[in-house]
Amino acid sequence: MSQLQVDSLNEIFRYLESDKFTLRSCMLVNHLWCKISMKFFWRNVYNYNISNVNTLISCLPNESKKILYESGINISNQTSEYNYAKFCKVLSMDRVHYMVNNLLETQQFTLKILVMQELLKMFEKQVSLDCLTVYYYDFTPKNWLKNLSELHCYSNLSSEFFYQLSQICHNISLLDIRIGNYISNGLAKLISVQKNLKYFSMKQDDDNDIPSLITELPNSLIKLNLYGSNCIPLSFISKFSNLQELELSYSYQEDFIGFEELQHIFFPQLQILKIRRAFPRDELLKIFLENNGKNLKEFYLGDFGGISDKSLNLAIARTCPNLKKLSTGFSYELITLQIVFDGCQYLESIRIWYEKKALEAIAKYSHNIDELILYHHSFKARFELLPKELESFFIDWKNRVPQKSLSLIIVTCSTRSLEKNDENMKIIEKYRKLGIIKKFKVTDFNDDDLYLDLNHFRKN
Predict the structure, then answer these.
(1) What residue segments make up the domains of the chain, in order of their start?
(2) Mean pLDDT of all residues in 360-383
(3) Which of 48, 264, 375, 422 would bridge 52 by S-S if both were Cys, CB 3.0 to 4.6 A apart?
C-alpha cells in the first residue's frame, strides 16, 4: 500500500463527506477503502441513522455500559474493531438526542437522558470537535470543544452555556445564530472573545433587540448573512471593509428600510451580493452597484427571479462586468438581454422566469452561459412552454459556436410547468443523449441549493 494511494483516497473521500450513501458503498470495496471512507462517514453526525447511534452506544467504555446495564437499559455486548466516536468532528447534540429517543422509545425519559450523558462523557474524552450544532440540548461545555471552529445555535440557550464556551473557545470562525424568544446574556460575551470570526449568520423571526450582538462583531468578517424581520439597522455593516459575501433575506417585502445606509459604502472585496425576498429601491441599488459592481461575481435580487426594472438590468450590464451568476427579472425585451450579455460576458449561470423570447435571447446572445435556471409559478407564469419552442431552443443551442453543454434546472410549483408535458421530457431526454444537456433537474421553490444554502455559507 503506497502513501500516494492513501493520500489520493483521502482527497477523494473528503469530497464525498456529505454523500453518506456513496461512503457506505465505498466501505464495501476492500479493507483499505473501508478504513479510509469510514473515517469520513463517522466524521459527520448528519450521516448517522438510528443504527449508527446504537453502534456508538456499543463503543461506550465498560464503566458506562455497566451504569446503563444496572439502570435497566439492555444494550448489546457486541464490541467493534474500531472506536467510531473518535472520528466525530461534526456533531449535532439535538440530532443525537432525537435518535436516542427513537432508539429507546419504550424507555423512560430519565433513562434516555442517562444514555445521552454517557455518550457525552465519551465524546468529552475522545473527540476534538470542529463543528457543533445545539439548539435545544443544553449541556456544560468542556475542553473537548476548545478547537471548535463552527457553532450553530439558538440565542436562548442558557447564559451559563455561552459563558463557559467563551472561556474555552476563542477561535470560532463560523457562527450561525437563530434568534429565539430571548437572547442569553452570555452570547454577546462569546462573540466578543472571538479572534478569528470570518462568517456570521443570524436568523431572526421577530423583533427582538439585537444591538448587543451586532456591535460585538469583529471587523474581520468576510461573510455576513442576515435573515428575518426588517428591523436590523444596516449601518453597522459598513465597518466590515473585508466583506466578500453579503446576504440580506427578509419576509417578502417589496422594499425594506435601511438600504440607503449602504448605498454609498465601498466594499472593495465584495464578490457575492444576495438580496432575497425584498427589493431595495432601484435608485439606491444602482448607486450601490456603481460603487461595488466591478468586483461582483454573483448577484441575486428579489425572490426566485422576481421581475426587476429594465433600467436596473441595464445598470447591472454597465457596472458588473465580471458577473458569473445572475438572478434578476427581465422585461423580456431582446435588446435588454443582449445588452446584459454583452456587458457581462463572463456570465455562466442565469436565473429567470421562462418565456419564449428569453430563451431565444439566451441562445442567440449569451457568451459563456452553461447553466440555465428557469422559474415557473402558476400565478406568475406568462405562458406554457410548448414542445416545438423547447425543441427550437435546443437546436439553436446545439448550433452555437463554440458549442457548450447546458445544465438545465426547472424550479416549479405549477401543474403547467415544462416537465409536466411528456413531449417536452422526450425532447430533453433526446438532447441529454446527444450531450447537449449535461445536467437536468426539477425542483421546487424550497430547494436548499437554490434558496437558503447553508452548506454554501459554511467555510470550505
Answers:
(1) 3-37, 45-126
(2) 77
(3) 48
